[in-house]
Amino acid sequence: MASAMISLASATPSASLSVQETLMGKTRLASGCVSTLFNKEKGKPSIKKKSFGQISMTVAVNVSRFEGIVMAPPDPILGVSEAFRADIDVKKLNLGVGAYRNEELQPYVLDVVKKAENLMLERGENKEYLSIEGLAAFNKATAELLFGADNPVIEQQRVATVQGLSGTGSLRLAAALIERYFPGAKVLISSPTWGNHKNIFNDARVPWSEYRYYDPKTVGLDFEGMISDIKAAPEGSFVLLHGCAHNRTGIDPTPEQWEKIADIIQEKNHIPFFDVAYQGFASGSLDADASSVRLFAARGMELLVAQSYSKNLGLYAERIGAINVVCSSADAAARVKSQLKRIARPMYSNPPVHGARIVANVVGDPALFDEWKAEMEMMAGRIKNVRQKLFDSLSAKDKSGKDWSFILKQIGMFSFTGLNKTQSDNMTNKWHVYMTKDGRISLAGLSLAKCEYLADAIMDSFHNVS
Amino acid sequence: MDSSSVFANIVRAPEDSILGVTVAYNKDSSPDKLNLGVGAYRTEEGKPLVLKVVRRAEQMLVNDNSRVKEYLPIVGLADFNKLSAKLIFGADSPAIQENRVTTVQCLSGTGSLRVGAEFLARHYHQLTIYIPNPTWGNHTKIFGLAGLSVKAYRYYDPATRGLDFQGLLEDLGAAPSGSIVLLHACAHNPTGVDPTIEQWEQIRQLMRSKGLLPFFDSAYQGFASGNLDADAGSVRMFVADGGECLAAQSYAKNMGLYGERVGALSIVCKTADVASRVESQLKLVIRPMYSNPPIHGASIVATILKDRDMYNEWTVELKAMADRIISMRQQLFDALSARGTPGDWSHIIKQIGMFTFTGLNSKQVAFMTKEYHIYMTSDGRISMAGLSSRTVPHLTEAIHAAVTRVG
Questions:
Q1: How far is B345 from chain A (nearest CA, A)?
Q2: What is the DSSP letter of B42?
Q3: A228-285 pLDDT tens trace
Q4: Strand locations in A397-450 (E)
Q5: CATH architecture of A77-108+370-464
Q6: Which domain holds residue B237?
Q7: Is A132 close to B16, i.e. CB distance below 8 A?
Q8: For domain A129-364, is the CATH number 1.10.101.10?
Q9: Tens of pLDDT along A64-111?
Q10: pTM of this structure
Q11: Residue A127: which of B68, B258, B278 has the nearest Cβ?
Q12: Are the C-beta atoms of A202 and A179 separated by less than 8 Å?
């Protein structure tokens, strides 16, 4: 059998591993070629080899070309929701995926979104292809929202904005641009960061390394570690920064710390790369949440910013976002935009129109825009209230003197509780509280009514489980 | 001067050659201008069309207050996936009944092709794909960027303006065993030249004997002949022999959902177990690309496909679009014949689908654009969907002038 394996393998023209296979550590054995030897279905070998080594039709028909493909593990974040759905216990609580829930723990479609969709229907707009870079009105509105309409970078036309498929898609376009035009350049990502960041850079074949971020001792920012690691990276690296409401920890630098981060990035000629998924959602103020990005832009730095409207406009499933590249000149911005289009065209040709129109309508109409701001303050407000209630419940219950104030200091949808994997498992197995194994809970999925219960669960897991 | 920019070495990319035609058209101020570039359907009045049944479905969705905008699963809307598979493979397809098909929602045809290609580049053992010569301009880029090596097989015969069937058989016959082969399910883009049923059967036998893996691009189901089942015949023929294949589906044209980016990738596997493993790996391709697909267009499609009346309404509107295009073909052919334009123009009525490969060369095309404000791709492809009874005379004049005055 062994010799047959070898000769069949050599009969296959393409014997080299693809770059991606190498990256993911796959071996030849995982490929469909060698596995055609195993006819698992019929239980008998059906290999016929012609004298010059070609695989015969019999083998091709009886055995799958994909037989050697293994079952991929479930997505760690999205998998939490799947497990939650399968749980029949009435006390169950889903603090997994970061989608906003109202106090009744129901998904929430913003009123302004419904109004915009009705307006769009009334107008009877067509469904023609957008240009590759997306809806012009959306691109204009999104850049102005991020930088401020009167920002010099906008007035000087130095921002290349391309509509992307929410945050993920926008990050992916940027990653592809980096791979093509900054070969060998690394992206520095925080430790920890959103789980999908490294997948995006891996698939785009952009090398990455981590900078220290979360300090488990303080359940806060390891600022010295962060600065040190950014400083140690090769000059001209891209530094991925969360604009506000850091995902997974909820821990953001202070304004003073942001200044120092900008200093070191400038010193090392690094390129800042912001992921802005929560503008308006963190503090309730669109401008305040954009201050980190604007600080860097004000220094005249070139930078990249990926935006998402999934959370702040509740447009999760519409996949609407943008990649913005601030360049030192309008000419550079035009060139960069043209190359971003070249990346998007063979990926999906042009982006979806529906979500873009909703955003353009909401941001473009003063009345709707004001209404949006109010709804956003309400959502951010609810999360702040829940943080307060959770903190109060824990402080009241916990006589050990443990400081739970990090819950109030952290910002945005998520809180890094400091619970380890075993303790997180206890939260799920004993208390039916679904969360990610790194101790992250989504406060957007918590109601005031459930704070006491959650506090009990956290107390039990923290103090009685190691 | 830009030496301080980290983007100093980035040059300006040229406009996409197909979409760039519309960009140029928009800049032209002539009242006679005609856009026969991109393949988007136009009414007799030259206007984009949103199907009535689509509007109805959309109204239902927006009015439904129980609907939310939560993330779809990575593989997309489940109903949409099931219904799309049934549409292309047939509701009674054994492959579906045996759970051997995995279908994932993707961003229209392009997205489906890209996800399929990325999957093959990671998991398939033969990383060469054969594409017909000519083919849609974006195919090469999609497959190349996904990591596949792209080769061509003979397809269009300029001498007959039809299929170079012998060349096709020879080239596929010479392809290494296991190679991937891109097949246009119907209404070949850009030529409009499709194999006959008998020719499809020969292609199928050859491909199966060489273990070549079919990858169908189905962007015009229902649009080619006006009949959804007939237009899926080639795909169903391959599935019927029990073998494996990939199929990329687009709803851009047949449901007029262009900008909503709705499509699906189906992979027909030998067994249900393989299909489920394949699906899990498709998710790993999608998640770092865009996480999960957009909900709006897929919801419209699912709403229509699952309702008997709406489905029937759709088939009627679809047939009307296909019939208008067939009528344009006839009108253009008749006009050129009446004008006495030199050459055999019968290919206009023999070719199928949205496009006609006129046979005009790039100099003639440039002439038509400059002198007659006719916008089309430089390979001589015209979109019949962009023609109307009113504009046929102008196009006829332009072709006549190009053929008689430009070499």
A1: 31
A2: B
A3: 999 999 999 999 999 999 999 999 999 999 999 999 999 999 999 999 999 999 999 9
A4: 414-416, 433-434, 440-442
A5: Alpha-Beta Complex (3.90)
A6: 71-306
A7: yes
A8: no
A9: 888 889 999 888 777 788 889 899 999 999 999 789 999 999 999 999
A10: 0.91
A11: B258
A12: no
